[in-house]
């Protein structure tokens, strides 16, 4: 859990993903299309990816990918991110943490 907290707090936008997950691809593409440069951890490629996935589950993330943190705060998975985007809340959130300069 300490490793997870460190990973989350080091960058303004952090995405936990898996290459095999189509929703992960969709969320990564959304942020990249905005011009955001998120830190992306591919849990199926990194060391201790299973441990990190278990820690995400302990935080209440279900499913465990994709999971997005903005400004060190858990935003949630694809449904939560898309809801924020459709409500026009996502871009202001990204601006607040300095991840977007529009």
UniProtKB/TrEMBL annotation:
Classification via PANTHER family: GLUTAREDOXIN (PTHR10168)
Gene3D superfamilies: Glutaredoxin
Entries under InterPro entries matching the protein: GlrX-like_pln_2, Glutaredoxin, Glutaredoxin_subgr, Thioredoxin-like_sf
Protein name: Glutaredoxin domain-containing protein
Recorded family membership: Belongs to the glutaredoxin family. CC-type subfamily.
Keyword Membrane: no
Transmembrane segments: none
Superkingdom as given in the UniProt entry: Eukaryota
Residue span(s) of domain Glutaredoxin: 13-75
BP GO annotations: response to nitrate
Cellular component aspect of the GO annotation: cytoplasm
Keywords annotated in UniProt: Cytoplasm, Redox-active center
Pfam families: Glutaredoxin
Compartments, as annotated in UniProt: Cytoplasm
